[in-house]
Amino acid sequence: MTYESRITVRGYELDSFGHVNNAVFLNYCEEAQWQILRKKNLYDYFFRNSLILVVAGVEIRYIKEARVFDELVVRTRLKREAPYLVFHHVIRHATTDEIIARARIKTVLVDGERTPHDVPDSFVE
Fold first, then answer.
1. Integer angstrom CA distances of residue 48 from 1, 23, 34, 80, 111
2. If you compute the radius of gyration of the chain from its CA atoms, what whole number of angstroms results?
3. Domain of 77?
4. Per residue in 84-100, pLDDT tens?
5. Are 19 and 70 in contact (CB under 8 A)?
6. Mean pLDDT of the chain
C-alpha cells in the first residue's frame, strides 16, 4: 500500500541558492511518516506499549531541486525487515510528476530499556 502526503515548499526552507535545503527533505519524509502513524493508529499502539520509533539509518538521493511554493507529493511505502520498519519515500513535483528525491528510512521500535522490538506484520499489511 502506498500513502500520499502533500507539502507546499515554504520560503524559510530554502538555502542561499533559492531551492529547498537538502536537510529539509528529511523533514518532508518525517511529516509523511507521522501522517501514516496517525492514520494507522500506530502512535497509540506505541504509547500503550511504551515503545518509541527511532531512526536507525537514512539513505537519501537528491534528483531535482524544489523551489518556493512548489507543490510536492510524498509517496510512501512501508516494508517490514525484522526487526525494522522501513519507510520508502518518493518525493515528486505535484504538477510535473518529476521525481525530486528518494529516501529510505530504517526505523526500529525500542522500549524504555532501549531493547529493540519486532514490528508486527499488521503494520505493513
1. 25, 32, 17, 21, 11
2. 15
3. 2-123
4. 999 999 999 999 999 99
5. no
6. 94
Query: Which amino acid is located at 70 in the chain?
Result: D
Query: Backbone phi, then psi, for 67, in 5-degree steps?
Result: -120, 170
- In DSSP terms, 71 is beta-bridged to 8
Residue 92 C-alpha cell reads as: 515528486
First to last CA, the chain: 8
Q: Residue 81: what residue type?
A: E
Q: What is the CATH number of the domain that holds 113?
A: 3.10.129.10
Backbone angles phi, psi at 47, to 5 degrees: -60, -50
Total tally of structural domains belonging to the chain: 1
Instruction: Report which of 122, 102, 121, 97 is spatially closest to residue 32, judged by C-alpha positions.
Output: 102
